[in-house]
UniProtKB/TrEMBL annotation:
This is DUF5683 domain-containing protein. InterPro entries: DUF5683. Residues 49-192 form the DUF5683 domain. Keywords: Signal. Pfam families: DUF5683. The lineage of its organism: Bacteria, Pseudomonadati, Bacteroidota, Flavobacteriia, Flavobacteriales. The keyword Signal applies. It comes from Salegentibacter holothuriorum. Residues 1-21 form the signal peptide.
């Protein structure tokens, strides 16, 4: 009987006095009022002609479309690619002229710079080799020029998309202790 009274008294105390173990996290004591209205990032309406304009600028002067899109870091890459092609074209053209002139001198019966070190067939093969490399260099130059135009166009198209910080795609590597090997993969994370 005495235990019933003690238990009843304890239950009474629990319900009368709100005993809590932690603070209420849902209670808002003093909400701060913001003076300014927070906006999303500066919204710019999509300009449908921007991709064509960027491609046109890149066709006029390589790298100008990237500058129009605000991707200034791509301009040195464009000129490095085109410049590499031009360098190898000039180098291969110089070597092709050298072997061609030696072959012409040999056919005319004159002394050429290679003398007896290189045969006539080797001179013909060297001319073909450097002519082919000249043509490949022209293709590299044209490829970087076209890639420059395509990049400016695609980059202008992709500027309308909002990439949220809540969505991320990261490479992931885990070590498997059982097999002793690494596992590679890609993790897609979305933060609510």
């Amino acid at each position: 009987m005495k235990t019933n009274r003690v238990l009843s008294f304890l239950f009474f105390l629990l319900f009368v006095f709100k005993l809590t173990a932690q603070e209420d996290s849902l209670r808002i004591e003093n909400p701060e009022v913001l003076d300014t209205i927070t906006k999303e990032k500066d919204y710019k309406p999509y300009n449908a002609l921007a991709p064509a304009k960027a491609a046109f600028y890149s066709a006029i002067l390589p790298g100008l479309g990237q500058a129009y899109n605000g991707r200034y870091w791509k301009i040195p890459l464009v000129y490095a690619g085109i410049g590499t092609g031009v360098y190898f074209y000039i180098n291969n053209d110089k070597e092709w002229n050298r072997y061609r002139d030696a072959y012409k001198d040999r056919l005319a019966g004159k002394e050429d710079e290679f003398g007896d070190r290189i045969s006539t067939d080797a001179l013909i093969r060297a001319q073909e080799f450097y002519r082919r490399n000249k043509e490949i260099s022209i293709l590299v130059i044209a490829g970087f020029y076209v890639l420059n135009i395509i990049d400016a166009n695609v980059d202008a198209h992709l500027q309308q998309f909002n990439v949220s910080e809540d969505l991320s795609l990261k490479p992931n590597m885990e070590f498997d202790n059982f097999t002793g090997k690494s596992k590679y993969g890609v993790s897609l994370n979305y933060r609510f």
